[in-house]
Each structure stands twice: as structure tokens, then as C-alpha cells.
Write a structure and sequence with these properties.
With 295 residues, the protein is α/β, with parallel strands linked by helices. Helices cover 39% and strands 16% of the residues. It is globular, with a radius of gyration of 19 Å.
């Protein structure tokens, strides 16, 4: 089976490249090999390689910057999935579109189910929602379709740009300076390791699973909880000399260009059952990732 991977240089892409199941032929493309903002290039890649699957792990993920670059965010997050879907409809093959909890508005107080209405708050979420809609319209996301949408939340890993690596740097700086580290405490979701997310992606492909699915690690956390755990585990394992004191603040005290969901837990029960994958608590997953971070 041949898989065309996008976003190979990103944090999820690298985790996917490091965990390719035996028997799969991987065509890994990063930004230099395939510009996702170029819809024609996306169609040409499918026509050239004729993959059995396109695993679209690449995305425009700069949530705040997207507010000032809506056309680019739309091109990458909506235009590319549509182009892949149209090319696969012509040449054959399946699509796994990685998506996000940001397609929801975060106003309900219980986890979101895969079939709930999309109501994004900002440009980034709207562009990802548009990508989902395009994929479903062209290829179909039902049991008889050939497209899979896999939403995740708060992804982080040992490489790339993410909350974990930012917090490690800030813990070092703030601890050395004897200053507290202020982190938002009124936004709740679930941190998700790219190591486990990569396993879920490969399980989707190997089992030929279609439809809309959710995948995150287990449990719930605020960004404040996540930052505290990073400091505790990183210092315990010698990745940092000392954790900084973490001070909880409200999102209103840390204004950003993009509005974020206040509550974006995803209900993953059906996906875990279908993929035969056991949930891992986010703190256990975090400790595993910390072991893979270069000191």
C-alpha cells in the first residue's frame, strides 16, 4: 500500500515518518516538496504518485497569525484538502484528513461528538472546517465513503513548535530569573501526544476506516494544568534544572488575536473502540514524550 504524506517536516509528520508500519510504502513530502497553498501542485502529486492513501497531516496551524492571513490559511487548510479529494476522485484512492477541535465553539460543557455541528470561532477553525466540508462533499465521509476526518486536540511532541517545547524554554528562563510563569487556566481540553496520534493515523489506514472520528489522549486539563505537569515531569527527569512557579490566569488577562474554544474536549470512545486502541492518560503520554526530547 502506497501512502502520500504531507507535512512530513512538522511535529505530527515526523512522528508518522518514525512509525511507518511494515508493508507500507511512504512518500513523505514537506513544504519544499509540496506547497499545500498550491492546489494544482496537490492535484499533480496525486496524479504522479497514484497513492492508495493521502495522509494530509500538513496544515496552516498559526492560530493567531491566521487572523491576518486568512487567504493563506484558507488555501492550505481548505484548498489543499479539496484538491486532494478531487484528484483522488479522479484517479482512485482514499484520504485521511487530520483536523482539529477548533472546528467547535467550545460553549458546551461536555465532550464533543464527531457528528456535532461545526461552529468555529476564528479564521483557523473556519479554514479547517471548510477543509472537512470539502472532503466530505467530494469523497463522502460515511461508511461507504473513501474519506476519513480525524480530529485531534492540543497536539504536541518532542520536535517542532508546540506548547511543550515553549513551556520547557519558559520554565528554564523564569526559574533562573526567579519569576512566575503565567498560564491560562480557563480553557479546557486534552493534550495529545503526536506519538499516540501517529499510531491512530496508521490504524485508520491499515483498517481502512472511513467517517469522522476523534482522537486525543485521555483525561482533561487546562493549559495551566499542562504547564504545571510539564515543569514537574521535566525537572524530575533532568530535562530542566528547576521548574518555575506557574501562576493561573484567565484568558481575558492574556488577549490574543484569535478567540479560542473555552472547552474543547473530544469524545473519542467510538474511535478507540473501532481502532482497537487503548486510551492513555495525557500525563502518562507527556512523560513518554519528555523522554524523547533532546536536553
Amino acid at each position: 500500500m502506497k501512502v502520500l504524506l504531507t507535512g512530513a517536516g512538522g511535529q505530527l509528520g515526523q512522528a508518522l515518518c518514525d512509525s511507518v508500519p511494515s508493508g507500507l510504502e511512504l512518500i513523505a513530502t514537506g513544504r519544499q516538496q509540496l506547497d499545500l497553498a498550491d492546489a494544482q501542485a496537490c492535484r499533480a502529486a496525486v496524479a504522479q504518485h497514484r497513492p492508495d492513501w493521502v495522509l494530509n497531516a500538513g496544515a496552516y496551524t498559526a492560530v493567531d497569525k491566521a487572523e491576518s492571513e486568512p487567504k493563506l490559511a484558507q488555501a492550505v487548510n481548505a484548498g489543499a484538502p479539496r484538491a486532494f479529494a478531487e484528484a483522488l476522485a479522479e484517479h482512485g484512492g482514499r484520504l485521511l484528513q487530520v483536523s482539529t477541535d477548533f472546528v467547535f465553539n467550545g460553549q458546551q460543557g461536555h465532550p464533543y461528538y464527531p457528528d456535532q455541528l461545526r461552529q468555529p470561532l476564528g479564521v483557523y477553525g473556519a479554514s479547517k472546517a471548510a477543509g472537512e466540508e470539502a472532503v466530505a462533499a467530494v469523497l463522502g465521509c460515511g461508511d461507504s465513503g473513501v474519506a476519513t476526518i480525524l480530529r485531534t486536540s492540543w497536539a504536541y511532541g518532542p520536535v517542532g513548535r508546540n506548547f511543550l517545547l515553549t513551556m520547557l524554554r519558559l520554565h528554564r528562563l523564569k526559574a533562573e530569573a526567579g519569576e512566575p510563569l503565567s498560564v491560562v487556566a480557563d480553557q479546557v481540553g486534552c493534550p495529545t501526544s503526536t506519538l499516540g496520534l501517529a499510531q491512530a493515523c496508521w490504524a485508520v489506514i491499515q483498517q481502512q476506516v472511513a467517517g469522522i472520528h476523534h482522537w486525543s489522549d485521555a483525561g482533561a486539563a487546562s493549559w495551566y494544568d499542562f504547564a504545571v505537569a510539564i515543569g514537574e515531569l521535566a525537572s524530575a527527569h533532568g530535562l530542566i534544572a528547576k521548574a518555575a512557579q506557574v501562576r493561573p490566569i484567565m484568558a481575558a488577562q492574556y488577549p490574543t488575536p484569535a478567540q479560542r474554544p473555552a472547552y474543547s474536549l473530544l469524545d473519542c470512545a467510538a474511535t478507540r473502540q473501532q481502532l482497537h486502541l487503548q486510551p492513555q492518560h495525557w500525563r502518562v503520554a507527556l512523560e513518554e514524550v519528555i523522554h524523547h526530547v533532546d536536553a
